[in-house]
Specification:
homodimer; 233 residues; alpha/beta; 2 domains; 5 strands
Chain lengths: 233, 233
């Protein structure tokens, strides 16, 4: 669902008066891509990387000149993806962490899949940005896995209390912002009304993708619109 | 917005327990495609057909083996599109009219763009299906143009009263069903709660696309799920 939501988000947040003001999009949803977390955790030996690289090349071959990959976990080997891609690939992890810093974060809490936790993508990006990365404890991570795989991916209702408990855990560990670092979690932000301390990685990716394609954003939080304007490859 | 909604609709209505149960989708949103109605009415000389055929070939080249075109007006020259496409193109107009008949319609009202009215696509499909086609009078058509171009395409709120007046006109002319025959109007069905007499062309296209790709639908009206199972090229 999150790539459908990503597409909707780009369309809704591009400043446009008519169809022709929108940006050209070519989108591949390869549902059969092996699960990223299952591969990273070792639960499966099916490597999603060749499929993802194949799709990126397919899109570039069909004329895409910038790639946005609305899956945080898929960035576990951004270097390999970026190297294999004939066109630039926006890095959702790096951008989201930089945006958190831009809003004043010093200790950023991260909600992600188990795959992203193990691959350490957010910890590395925070280190590079010079801010602290607060990750969930094992029970918080188990709760997130349950929310992502058993609720959202199955189009079932998310228990707000379960989500709140994870947020409270991160706040208790000192987080001053909370990154929704799995694009499935962005669907929670769509449904519930979350406060400004939440930073939605999908929104950051959408805003930067719109700007880098030469269009202007509308309707995003003001700091994000400002940040996206600064973004260059 | 309607192609984003179409993608969301396919994802939400495919019976799936995990990502890998979804169908593979490759989607091109060529925002720069010339306006279909402007060309049909003669307000513009920019022919959208070459762009649309180019995009269809691009998708087929990137591996698509079935094309769904979520724009009713674009079907003004379905024959040319179908002939130029290397792979089958689902005909939203024909399917929607056949589905209306399947639900028992004898006199079907049509809400469409001015382009579809002038090209006569719904009238022709109804003739072929052996049911009556009720189209709006000039003031109803002007109201629809206003709703589609000045509200929906600009992401502005639709005035429910204006929409109701058009529906009342069709009912007054004897329509027993009302086809939402412009995919922008499907967004109204998403927002307002419309009764069963409305037939959403975008839902018909989505249901048939899911079935023809070998998956099963979920959450559509029961007659539509039954109809989509019967659909073959």
């Amino acid at each position: 669902m999150s790539s459908a939501y990503f597409y909707e988000m780009i369309t809704a947040h591009t400043r446009a008066e008519r169809d022709q003001d929108h940006i050209d999009i070519i989108l591949s949803s390869r549902a059969s891509t092996p699960d990223r977390t299952a591969f990273i955790t070792g639960a499966s030996t099916e490597d999603p990387l060749p499929v993802m690289i194949g799709e990126i090349c397919r899109l570039a071959g069909a004329g895409a000149d910038i790639i946005a990959l609305p899956c945080n976990t898929a960035h576990f080997n951004y270097h390999a993806i970026s190297k294999a891609s004939p066109v630039p690939v926006i890095n959702i992890i790096k951008l989201t962490v930089e945006y958190a810093k831009f809003t004043g974060a010093k200790r950023v809490g991260v909600m992600s899949t188990e795959g992203s936790f193990i691959s350490g993508v957010f910890a590395a990006a925070c280190r590079e940005a010079g801010i602290d990365c607060i990750e969930c404890l094992p029970d918080g991570r188990a709760a997130l896995t349950d929310i992502i795989y058993n609720s959202i991916k199955r189009s079932k209702k998310v228990d707000p209390a379960a989500f709140e408990r994870v947020a409270d855990q991160l706040a208790g560990l000192g987080a001053d912002r909370i990154i929704l670092g799995c694009t499935e979690l962005s669907l929670i932000k769509k449904e519930f009304c979350l406060s400004d301390i939440y930073i939605d990685s999908l929104e950051v990716l959408a805003a930067c993708a719109i700007e880098v394609c030469g269009s202007s954003t509308t309707g995003f939080p003001a700091p994000l619109e400002k940040f996206a304007k600064l973004y260059r490859f």
